[in-house]
């Protein structure tokens, strides 16, 4: 009986120690979770603040662009197809747009000096002789197909 009582007492002490350790572990885990949540909230606030700052900067730049866009010069309508600002293309008002770029320097062909007559004659002669030498003529071969219906029909008659 004494042994049973001591074993039960030891069991109870072990269970109490286990509960105490579990409670300590549980407190530690809850503290870690709360710290993790705080960090996440801080990151979210930081991200929101960054987005807000970015939005404000973009809006400021847009408003500045809008103010300057009013003062920029407009394209001239007195160009190709738009004399006095009115379209003269087709009756329905469609016409080709004004060219975006016009080359200020007109195109000029490259000057090639004419060949001298002496060298031209020799070149013509040399070209003929080279071209004649380069071509080799093969003997003519007459090809007769074996299964020619016309030939067979004439042979049968």
TrEMBL record:
<feature type="compositionally biased region" description="Polar residues">
    <location>
        <begin position="122"/>
        <end position="137"/>
    </location>
</feature>
<dbReference type="GO" id="GO:0097225">
    <property type="term" value="C:sperm midpiece"/>
</dbReference>
<feature type="region of interest" description="Disordered">
    <location>
        <begin position="20"/>
        <end position="55"/>
    </location>
</feature>
<protein>
    <submittedName>
        <fullName>Coiled-coil domain containing 34</fullName>
    </submittedName>
</protein>
<dbReference type="GO" id="GO:0007283">
    <property type="term" value="P:spermatogenesis"/>
</dbReference>
<feature type="region of interest" description="Disordered">
    <location>
        <begin position="73"/>
        <end position="97"/>
    </location>
</feature>
<dbReference type="InterPro" id="IPR025259">
    <property type="entry name" value="CCDC34/181"/>
</dbReference>
<feature type="compositionally biased region" description="Polar residues">
    <location>
        <begin position="85"/>
        <end position="95"/>
    </location>
</feature>
<feature type="domain" description="Coiled-coil">
    <location>
        <begin position="3"/>
        <end position="107"/>
    </location>
</feature>
<dbReference type="Pfam" id="PF13904">
    <property type="entry name" value="CCDC34"/>
</dbReference>
<feature type="region of interest" description="Disordered">
    <location>
        <begin position="116"/>
        <end position="137"/>
    </location>
</feature>
<dbReference type="InterPro" id="IPR045323">
    <property type="entry name" value="CCDC34"/>
</dbReference>
């Amino acid at each position: 009986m004494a042994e049973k009582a001591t074993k039960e007492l030891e069991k109870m002490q072990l269970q109490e120690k286990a509960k105490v350790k579990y409670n300590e572990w549980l407190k530690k885990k809850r503290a870690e979770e709360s710290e993790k949540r705080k960090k996440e909230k801080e990151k979210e606030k930081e991200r929101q603040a960054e987005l807000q700052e970015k939005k404000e900067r973009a809006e400021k730049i847009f408003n500045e662009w809008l103010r300057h866009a009013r003062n920029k010069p407009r394209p001239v309508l007195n160009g190709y197809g738009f004399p006095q600002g009115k379209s003269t293309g087709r009756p329905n008002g469609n016409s080709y747009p004004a060219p975006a770029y016009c080359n200020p320097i007109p195109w000029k062909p490259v000057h090639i000096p004419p060949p001298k007559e002496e060298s031209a004659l020799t070149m013509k002669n040399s070209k003929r002789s080279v071209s004649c030498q380069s071509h080799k003529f093969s003997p003519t071969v007459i090809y007769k197909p074996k299964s020619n219906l016309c030939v067979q029909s004439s042979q049968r008659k």
